[in-house]
Write a structure and sequence with these properties.
- The chain has one domain: NAD(P)-binding Rossmann-like Domain (Rossmann fold, 3-Layer(aba) Sandwich), CATH 3.40.50.720.
- With 228 residues, it is an alpha/beta fold.
- The strands form 2 sheets. The protein has a 7-stranded parallel β-sheet, sandwiched between helices. Strands 7-8 form a two-stranded parallel sheet.
- Helix 1 packs across helix 6 and helix 6 packs across helix 7.
- Helix content is 38%, strand content 19%.
- The structure holds NADP nicotinamide-adenine-dinucleotide phosphate.
- The site of NADP nicotinamide-adenine-dinucleotide phosphate has 22 residues, from helix 1 and helix 3.
């Protein structure tokens, strides 16, 4: 299939920037639309940037006509400043994007959530991720892909102490993380982004959930295998 259009939300982030790069380099896509808060210093003939207020996504619905949406939005409670603000970015914005995309006949919705996503979790972060998955999964897309990475590895412009400590710890115990523990291994953001683009290419109908161990294999085999 040639001439697809992809939308990326969160294209300035760690996974999102890799995702954007992969999509721009992929001949399958004729146009890539980045929904951004601030213009990105990325220039490419296929790239169209649309500055949006994510609180008012319905005002840019004409930019949501596409074949696929890649949602890499997210924040942390520390950066957002409160649980409510975190929930806005990790639940309300992706869900509103998915709802508008679904009513614009987008075929596939690909979204990063997290390992441990569970609407019944007692951990606030995991619960929000699980709740957004549950609501997005109800929408009538041809395919929905949820990527549930463990700790992300990659270079960020800002310093995140928790992630640095986590990455060191993971590195120390990596050799112990085999079998069912593989899903807890830290994973490169570039690998998650590559797996998202690979999954879109396969165009498998249905709702799919991928944890880190599966995400790794999707990049090695250039294929997709649902963990559920
Ligand atoms: N960090 C980890 O180890 C980890 C592990 C598992 C899952 N995840 C999940 O993976 C996803 C991607 O993570 P990441 O580390 O790649 O994210 P990131 O680097 O923090 O980037 C987040 C993206 O969301 C956008 N965003 C944040 N707040 C926003 C707001 N109020 N309005 C509009 N856009 C906003 C950012 O845009 P600006 O540049 O404009 O701020 C950026 O493009 C997230 O959902 C995260 O929860 C992360």
């Amino acid at each position: 299939m040639n001439g697809s259009t992809a939308i990326v939300a969160g294209g300035s982030g760690l996974i999102g920037s890799h995702c954007l790069r992969n999509l721009l380099a992929d001949d399958r896509y004729e146009q890539v639309v980045a929904l951004v808060r601030r213009p990105l210093a990325v220039y490419h003939p296929k790239l169209k940037q649309k500055t949006v207020d994510f609180n008012r996504l319905e005002h840019v619905v004409e930019f949501l006509r596409a074949d696929e949406v890649f949602c890499c939005l997210g924040t942390t409670i520390r950066i957002a400043g409160s649980k409510d603000e975190f929930r806005k970015v990790d639940f309300h914005f992706p869900l509103q994007l998915a709802r508008l995309a679904s009513s614009s006949n987008v075929r596939q919705f690909l979204m990063v959530t997290s390992l441990g996503a569970d609407p019944n979790s007692s951990v606030f972060y995991n619960r929000v991720k699980g709740e957004v998955e549950r609501e997005v999964a109800k929408l009538p897309f041809s395919a929905i892909h949820f990527f549930r990475p463990s700790l992300l590895l990659g270079n960020r412009p800002e310093f995140r102490l928790g992630e640095r400590i986590g990455a060191r710890l993971m590195e120390t115990v990596r050799f112990l993380m085999v079998g069912k523990w593989r899903r807890y291994r830290a994973i490169r953001a570039s690998v998650v982004a590559r797996a998202m683009v690979n999954a879109a290419r396969l165009d498998l109908p249905g709702v799919h959930y991928y944890e880190s161990n599966v995400i790794e294999s999707m990049v090695k085999t250039n294929g997709a295998e649902s963990s559920r």
